[in-house]
């Protein structure tokens, strides 16, 4: 039976579709997207095996999924860190940029083409809206003005900072000699060297704009979002940089209609995939099962002792909202009832749905019975003597000896009706025939009643001493 679709379910499907499409947009063209697609296929197979009751296959896929998640976190930690950063709503505030870069593009472009004509290799990164702190490593901080002389001196062959990338941010050269992550795409042409692979690797992980000068061919290339484009003239480079890096106010407005209807194939595919996934996890939606849950009381006043709880278990009805939820036989449910208001005598406590913590995807629909009766008494503390429990007779040579206990009295605590009847406590049985004068024996105390506790953590010391010595 197909479950009734609520407005919350529609919102659930749309939110998940938007998140998946955003991840697809970020990782498109990278090796991460291939892994994500593979995981999606494995997930669909897993739910299909569960639906068809293929227990062994579904168990293997479930265990394999746990290992794969750990491997993905280790292998794609950089991509995951960038994705989390892109989700941050504060990143535009924290990384506010001064729009002064575009005034430097002409000088930069002319300088770069002059360097290309001299076969001087270079790698320049223009930071976009996203932070590059975790992607560009081992750089030397400069924080200098952009000038032809500074750019040529940084990338002059043999200069200390020429081997690496220069970062331009907020209209200044922020760092030089930075190391960038290399692209692992198998589609990169063989004639492209390390500089181009580094530029492509950074563009796959951020919105940065990178300019590369080939030292062997004297070519200027512009790299963005995992794609490389050759620039033939300084004018081409200026126009490209101005288009990619100019201020937000100058960007052409994109209508909501264009945003909605662009890239319809991946959007529709993801929407259908999310709908199928939602259908799989809600196949048991509305199924109601019954379970027996023990009652546990908490918050009992310090001066009260519980005697009896009737009943000790309650029956609950559980509504499952997803096929991902475990069966009731595997749930460890308890009814945690507040007993802070109980008094001496019998008290009726109500068991509410909120007292039973059901896992996510399950709802408590009914509890029977709805009340439990708790019998309690006032707690009493009393000090009583300790006596040794002797079995048999003492040897004749010890007839004039006396058995003593250390300590000779202890505190007991429990229900007032039980404590009032107790005049002493005894040790465990002691074979009197085996006792020897002057020796000490360690024995535990017997608990006189079920709900009575003895305030002593160590065993009692039992000794056999002459009567006259004991009197002294």
Radius of gyration: 39 Å
Summarize the amount of helix as a percent range: 25-40%
Write the CATH fold name of the largest domain: YojJ-like (1
Number of strands: 20
Name of the CATH class of the largest domain? Alpha Beta
In the CATH hierarchy, what is the architecture of the largest domain at level 2?
A: 3-Layer(aba) Sandwich
For the sheet with most strands, the description reads:
7 strands, mixed
Determine the strand fraction and express it as a percent band: 25-35%
Question: Which whole number gives the mean pLDDT?
Answer: 80
Read across the widest sheet, the strand sequence of neighbours is: 2-4-3-1-5-6-7
Annotation field: number of helices: 13
What structural class do the secondary elements suggest? Answer: alpha+beta
**Outline:** elongated
CATH level 4 superfamily of the largest domain: DNA integrity scanning protein, DisA, N-terminal domain
- Taking pLDDT < 50 over at least 5 consecutive residues as the criterion, the unreliable ranges are 89-103, 247-251
Spatial gap, N to C terminus: 90 Å
- Tell me the count of domains: 4
Can you walk through the features of this model?
The structure is a single chain. The protein has 472 residues and is α+β, with helices and mostly antiparallel strands. It has four domains: 7-90 and 266-281, no CATH class; 101-246, YojJ-like (1 (3-Layer(aba) Sandwich), CATH 3.40.1700; 287-369, RNA Polymerase Alpha Subunit, Chain A, domain 2 (Beta Complex), CATH 2.170.120; 379-471, RNA Polymerase Alpha Subunit, Chain A, domain 2 (Beta Complex), CATH 2.170.120. Helices cover 33% and strands 29% of the residues. The protein is built from 13 helices and 20 strands. It has helices at 7-27, 31-51, 55-75, 77-87, 91-94, 105-117, 148-154, 194-205, 234-245, 256-261, 264-281, 416-419, 467-471; strands at residues 122-126, 140-145, 165-169, 172-178, 209-213, 220-224, 227-231, 287-298, 304-310, 313-320, 335-338, 345-350, 362-368, 371-391, 401-406, 409-415, 425-431, 440-443, 453-454, 460-466. The strands form four sheets. The protein has a seven-stranded mixed β-sheet with strand order 2-4-3-1-5-6-7, with helices on both faces. Strands 9, 12, 14, 16, 17 and 19 form a six-stranded mixed β-sheet that branches. The longest helix has 21 residues, at 7-27. The protein is elongated and about 120 Å long. The N and C termini lie far apart (90 Å). The model is unreliable at 89-103 and 247-251 (pLDDT under 50).
């Amino acid at each position: 039976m197909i479950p009734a679709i609520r407005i919350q379910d529609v919102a659930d499907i749309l939110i998940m579709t938007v998140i998946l499409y955003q991840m697809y947009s970020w990782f498109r063209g990278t090796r991460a997207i291939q892994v994500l697609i593979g995981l999606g296929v494995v997930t669909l197979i897993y739910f299909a095996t569960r639906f068809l009751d293929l227990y062994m296959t579904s168990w293997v896929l479930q265990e394999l999924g746990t290992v794969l998640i750990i491997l993905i976190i280790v292998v794609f930690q950089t991509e995951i860190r960038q994705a989390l950063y892109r989700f941050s709503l504060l990143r535009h505030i924290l990384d506010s940029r001064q729009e002064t870069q575009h005034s430097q593009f002409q000088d930069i472009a002319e300088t770069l083409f002059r360097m290309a004509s001299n076969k001087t290799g270079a790698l320049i990164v223009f930071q976009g809206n996203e932070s590059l702190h975790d992607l560009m490593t081992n750089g030397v901080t400069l924080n200098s003005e952009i000038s032809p002389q500074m750019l040529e001196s940084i990338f002059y062959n043999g200069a200390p900072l020429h081997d690496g990338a220069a970062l331009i941010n907020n209209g200044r050269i922020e760092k030089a000699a930075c190391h960038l992550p290399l692209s692992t795409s198998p589609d990169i042409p063989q004639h492209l060297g390390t500089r181009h692979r580094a530029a492509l690797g950074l563009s796959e992980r951020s919105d940065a704009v990178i300019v590369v000068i080939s030292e062997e061919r004297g070519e200027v290339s512009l790299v963005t979002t995992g794609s490389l484009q050759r620039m033939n003239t300084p004018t081409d480079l200026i126009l490209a940089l101005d288009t990619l890096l100019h201020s937000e106010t100058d960007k052409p407005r994109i209508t909501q209609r264009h945003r909605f209807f662009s890239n319809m194939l991946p959007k529709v595919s993801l929407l259908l995939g999310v709908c199928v996934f939602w259908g799989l996890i809600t196949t048991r939606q509305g199924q109601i099962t019954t379970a027996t849950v023990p009652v546990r009381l908490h918050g009992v006043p310090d001066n009260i002792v519980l005697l009896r709880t009737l009943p000790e278990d309650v029956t609950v009805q559980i509504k499952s909202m997803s096929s991902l939820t475990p069966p009731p036989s595997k749930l460890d449910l308890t009814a945690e009832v507040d007993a802070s208001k109980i008094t001496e005598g019998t008290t009726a406590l109500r068991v509410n749905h909120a007292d039973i913590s059901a896992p996510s995807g399950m709802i408590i629909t009914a509890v029977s019975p709805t009340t439990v009766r708790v019998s309690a008494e006032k707690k009493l503390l009393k000090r009583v003597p300790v006596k040794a429990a002797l079995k048999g007779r003492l040897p004749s040579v010890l007839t004039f000896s006396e058995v003593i206990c250390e300590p000779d009295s202890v505190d007991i605590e429990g229900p007032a009706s039980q404590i009032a009847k107790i005049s002493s406590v005894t040790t465990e049985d002691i074979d009197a025939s085996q006792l020897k004068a002057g020796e000490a024996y360690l024995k535990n105390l017997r608990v006189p009643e079920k709900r009575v506790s003895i305030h002593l953590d160590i065993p009692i010391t039992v000794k056999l001493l002459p009567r006259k010595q004991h009197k002294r």
